[in-house]
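INFO batch 0412 | record 1 of 1 | parsing
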Amino acid sequence: MKSRLFSAMVAMLLTMSLQAQTLPLKGSFVSPTDKNIQYVGRVSFANPERPRFNFPGTQIIAAFEGTSLKMLARPETGYFMAQIDGGEAFKVSFNAPRDSVVTLATALTPGRHTVKLMYCIEGLFRHPEFWGFLLDEGCTLTTPPTQSGRKIEFIGNSITCGYGVESTKKEAPFEDETENHYYTYATITAKALGAQHTAIARSGIGIYRNYNGPRTGNKDNMPWQYEYTLFNDHSERWDFSRWQPQLVCINLGTNDLSTPNFDIKLFEKNYRDFLKTVRGHYPNAKIVLCTGPMLGEKESAEQRKVLDAICQDTHKAGDTEVYRFDFSFQRGDLGYGASWHPSYWQQQKMAAELIAFLRPIMNWW
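INFO prediction complete | emitting tokens
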């Protein structure tokens, strides 16, 4: 009785404070602190009732009893891809100033169900927060689904974020509405290999120089951002013991080298230093140094030469678990996403190439 009374009070308070519904919220409220909720990715629990995140690919996973499910989040949090019981994923929008409660499922068969949510955009300017679930009256979360022990971390830029992947117009600008990490090579690869994954990625980011930055580089590059739970928020250092992947794929360099006036020596120095940082955090992981599909062939040749040398020197120093991989160039035959980024079909091709490369290395079949 006390539990039901508390749930009803919380739901009522949420209704009043969020001003998101014209009718009272009904059902059993589940706090983000519930032990049966699984989080995958960098999530800040500085306020446990308002967990924060802003990297694409962050996931929230749970199992529940009942016939319906609602989700609560901070208004204007952005977009998620949702799956109920492993069905086809669909997009969920928290996009309006007062849009804080979204129905994920109704009229389900009574019994146990699962939900998987993936934050599918970059949330730097939205300050996304997860605020909990609403279940049928009297229902609760149940034992969470078992997650794969295989773990991959992808470190990347807009290609990994899924910039423009839902657009078919190469001249189109960046829009949250057409970005979707769920359709990227990273997500597709992780699924095919039966692995969990995280994406430490941001559009425009580089190893030493962000897109069109000065020849001397940008301070707010990936090595500078990498140590923290939230992108561009250095109030909380990430605890790397919370996520120890067996595989790390680094796909950076496109922004460093895509516009003139780059310094290839500075690029190489920062890349070597960053690789040492990643290895320090993940002493047992296999690390793959990737080149992307967007650079011109001249610039890509310079990048490949640098990464080949880094890989060779790393092997000579005794670390033989560093590998090299090159995505094939995009030629336009599979179309383009927004701003000439990889299309939905190009991302699928990238995934197929990477999966074939990784399976024998990881022995993940």
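INFO post-check: The helical segments are 2-18, 158-161, 185-192, 222-225, 254-257, 264-281, 297-316, 344-362.
INFO record closed
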